[in-house]
Amino acid sequence: MSDTPDFQDDPARSNKSDERTAFLILAVVLAPALAVAIVGGWGFFVWILQMFYGPPTG
Question: Which residues cross the membrane (predicted)?
C-alpha cells in the first residue's frame, strides 16, 4: 500500500474529476438556485412596488 493519495499519481485525472464535479455543482445546484432567486427576487420587487403605486392599469 502506498501512503500517497491517488490524485498525485495522475494529475490529469484529478483535474478532469475536479472539473466534472465543479460542472455538476454549477449545472445541477447553482444555476437552478440562481434562476429561482432571480425570478423570486423580481416578483418580490414588483409586489413591493404594487403596494406603493397600486396595481397596473390598462
Answer: 21-49
